[in-house]
Specification:
The chain is of the alpha+beta class. Helix content is 40%, strand content 15%.
Length: 82
């Protein structure tokens, strides 16, 4: 078990060996939740990470296309693959 210190602005730095053992790399996303008095950090799967990043782009308005709705986009994609 590693002991870490809570610094100003409630920042916590996790040891590199601990992150490597959990398979966490720079840029990965973690789910954070509280269970009783424990704080749990769980690595997100790659698909979750990509979906989260894509959703952030949509929220920032960084999308372009001729489609007015998601349904219109899906219909067009289905037509192209049929």
């Amino acid at each position: 078990m590693a002991v870490v210190k809570v610094k100003s602005h409630y920042r916590v730095t996790l040891p590199a060996q601990l992150l490597a053992k959990a398979g966490v790399a720079v840029g990965d996303l973690l789910d954070a939740k509280v269970e009783g008095k424990k704080i749990m950090l769980v690595p997100k799967r790659a698909i979750d990470r990509e979906l989260t990043l894509a959703l952030d782009e949509v929220k920032r308005g960084r999308v372009k296309g001729p489609f007015s709705t998601a349904q219109a986009t899906i219909r067009a994609l289905r037509r192209r693959t049929a």
